[in-house]
Amino acid sequence: MNVRLSRRGLRLLLLAVAALFLGNAGYLQAKAALAQVLLERAWQRSEEGAVAAKPWPWADTRPVARLRVPALAVDQIVLAGDSGRTLAFGPAWNEASALPGDTGTSVVSGHRDTHFSFLRHVNNGDVIDVERDGRRWHYRVASQRVVDARTTRIAAAGDEGERLLLVTCYPFDDWVAGGPLRYVVEAVRL
Predict the structure, then answer these.
(1) Predicted confidence band at 56 (pLDDT cuts at 50, 70, 90)?
(2) CA–CA separation, 107 vs 80, rounded Å?
(3) SS3 of the chain: helix, strand, coil, percent, to 5
């Protein structure tokens, strides 16, 4: 009888732990989806002339660009500043790099399991559209590579090219968040 209760308790414990992990994953996905709705509204306000339109009253970020990958039906709002807090809500522009669309290299990061999960399906030659301030720029994917952040710096300062780097953690299906590897998609402006 005692062994039977122990097994039942162990099963219930395992079920509770599994529900916790699934609930957390569902929460993150729901938060990312809801954030894009609020960001879309802030984007529309900024397109109508609002300066630094915040997606919610307490936000410490704002939309700076729209990123589209037509071949993959991707349409996302890019936020200012790539802090962990900002990345929880959408792809984010590294403010040390050029603004998307400007001369120089622009670096945009996103989480591999939400907003930038599509990067695993990007191919050389795919077109990436960037919209900002009523203008649109087109980039063509030139390469994808995996780099080790401990030994390779993804830098854009001082670069006079016209490139867009999309960066996320790697591997895509890893159970552990973070890690030193980064998947980098490089696109050049057309």
Answers:
(1) confident
(2) 11
(3) 30, 30, 40
DSSP string, 91-128: -EE-TTSPPTTSSEEEEEE--TTTTTGGGGG--TT-EE
**Domains of the chain with bracketed CATH:** 2-189 (2.40.260.10)
Model pTM? 0.81
**Where do we find the tokens 């709002």?**
77
pLDDT (tens digit, 9 = 90+) per residue, 2-25? 656 566 666 766 666 666 655 555
State what percent of residues in the chain have pLDDT above 70.
81
Q: Sort 126 into a burial class: Cβ within 10 Å, 0-12 / 13-18 / 19+.
A: middle
Strand-pairing partners, residue 130, are 67, 137
For the record, the structure tokens of 40 come out as 């879309």
pLDDT digit string, tens, across residues 35-48: 778 888 888 888 88
What residue has token string 């984007």?
A: 43
Taking the C-alpha atoms of residue 50 and residue 72, their distance in angstroms, rounded to an integer, is 30
Give the span between the Cα atoms of 164 and 102, in whole angstroms.
Answer: 10
- Where do runs of H (alpha helix) occur along 74-157? 84-87
